[in-house]
């Protein structure tokens, strides 16, 4: 079975709701998309009814969405439509909502500019040996003497 993807162009309509639970994170927000058409009889643009779509992002995408998006910004969202079902605790009725599970979210560059910044890689812990320490340990196990900083490598004669 293959998944169909959907692309939505619109504006961020709500603040990003970011949540974490057991080292898993997700972000949800709404995108409003208003189709327009040109009315030739009156010579003006007309807006149709705004379509509101709930978007859900997970993991790293969720963290980046939280850090990057604010209400009103133009976005492009690509994802898969899923139906989320839950039971309302007060009325005990089953609730359903279609959600666009995002695989990509970006600013719409037809409407403005943005600056890209890579995610930072986690820093190495102190317990991790440096490259130089690994090389010296390997050479010591092979019977060679590891050079110290500033010295050139000299083969050890047997």
UniProtKB/TrEMBL annotation:
Biased composition (Polar residues): 142-158
Keywords carried by this UniProt record: DNA-binding
UniProt cross-references to Pfam families, sorted A to Z: SSB
CDD domains: SSB_OBF
Region (Disordered): 116-158
DNA-binding keyword on record: yes
Single GO molecular function: single-stranded DNA binding
Protein name: Single-strand DNA-binding protein
Taxonomic source organism: Mumia flava
């Amino acid at each position: 079975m293959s998944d169909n993807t959907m692309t939505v162009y619109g504006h961020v309509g709500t603040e990003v709701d970011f949540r974490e639970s057991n080292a898993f994170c997700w972000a949800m927000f709404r995108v409003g998309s208003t189709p327009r058409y040109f009315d030739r009889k009156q010579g003006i643009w007309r807006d149709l009814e705004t379509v509101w779509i709930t978007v859900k992002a997970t993991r790293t995408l969720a963290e980046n969405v939280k850090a990057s998006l604010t209400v009103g910004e133009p976005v492009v969202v690509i994802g898969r439509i899923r139906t989320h079902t839950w039971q309302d605790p007060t009325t005990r009725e089953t609730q359903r909502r279609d959600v666009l599970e995002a695989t990509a979210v970006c600013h719409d560059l037809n409407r403005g500019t943005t600056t890209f910044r890579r995610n930072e890689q986690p820093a190495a812990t102190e317990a991790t040996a440096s490259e130089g320490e690994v090389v010296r340990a390997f050479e010591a196990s092979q019977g060679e003497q590891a050079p110290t900083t500033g010295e050139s490598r000299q083969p050890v004669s047997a």
